[in-house]
Amino acid sequence: MGVLQKAPRKRYNSQRELALSFLALVDLAFLNDPFIKESEIYDIDDHYENSSLPYRFGKIVYRAQGISPLQLNGMTDEEAVVAYQDSFCKSTPTPNPVKGLKRMAVRLIGILTMDLLPFIPENATKKTERLMISLFEDENKTGMQLMS
């Protein structure tokens, strides 16, 4: 609670917006991109940010000072958090959690597919391919909103 008490309340219209903003930043710290390539890590600071949760959270909170605060403006909490995180990731070098989750899903499906490929009949390959593609096309059909 100490962090919320010391936060600059002048930036937020309500304590609810302040709390949602804090939780959105915590969420960003936890949802790092686990499949970041070594070639994308440029220096020791990037290495610490990718491998240390407390360090990453500190950097995220520091960067948050330079962007517009989360505002509900008639949106639901979920919509406001998604918009805030998207805006935050576009204006800072913080990995976008949705892109990270997509990369993770594609990587895991690739691993599973390669392991199972010898056991899939040839005539089922196109059908399986269409099914996998459909998982990423329409979140309403599959309920996989995180994957959109």
Provide a short characterization of the protein structure.
The protein has 148 residues and is mostly helical.
What does this structure look like?
It contains eight helices and no strands. The chain is mainly α. Helix 2 crosses helix 4, helix 2 packs across helix 5 and helix 3 crosses helix 4.
List the helices and strands and how they pair.
Elements: H1 2-6, H2 15-30, H3 44-51, H4 53-64, H5 77-91, H6 97-116, H7 125-137, H8 139-142
Name the beta content range. Answer: under 5%
Which structural category fits the helices and strands?
mainly alpha
Count of separate DSSP helical elements: 8
Care to count the β-strands? 0
The average pLDDT score comes to 76
Major β-sheet, in short? Answer: none
Taking all Cα atoms into account, the compactness measure Rg is: 19 Å
